[in-house]
Amino acid sequence: GMPIELALHGPPAALRKDMAAITITPAGDDAGRTATLRAFLGDMRITALTCGDADEDLAFYPVPPLVRPLVSIVPLQRLTAEVARKLGANPDRAHRESEPWGSAMVRHQL
After folding, report:
1. What DSSP line would sit under 29-58, residue for residue?
2. Structure pTM?
């Protein structure tokens, strides 16, 4: 996944219309940052689903804040792992199998 800060202030050039995104609605007020990200994804024609404990595309049961990652983040990590397995990819080693990423990542600790 990509943190909101990175998506909003990082390299938007990494995003393209054939991508998909799942955005997690924060439990508290984030000053409209998630809404801004979702609007940006829409403008980029990126398929985006919402996830949260309200009226969302992917809903989870409302739980106390300390339990929330177990019902939101962990299932999405498992989904990512299964999709990667089906595609023969490794989400933890993004780009490292292709050059020049592989060589550069070995030489530099980012």
Report:
1. --TTHHHHHHHHHHHTT-EEEEEESSS-SE
2. 0.68
